[in-house]
Sequence to fold (84 residues):
Amino acid sequence: MRVRIVSPINGSIDGIDLSKFRIDVVYEMSTSLANYLMASGYAVPVMDEKPALVAPVQEAEDASERAPRNTANERRRTPRAKPR
Fold:
């Protein structure tokens, strides 16, 4: 969901640092976070097709670091069962 930040935000919610959001910038974020920010008066909905910042970037980076790597080389190193 796209929202425009209209008021300064401090603190964090669910591990997301809200102070990184900038006033008058449009962000693409989860519906639950967008609804929280709108209900708290920090953001307004945006119906726009222009590019938006994706938030939170930190969450995406953390997920990519935790994801197991399954490359072709790792698959080749896995021992195979011997035929009987």
Summary: The radius of gyration is 20 Å. The chain has one domain: 2-69.
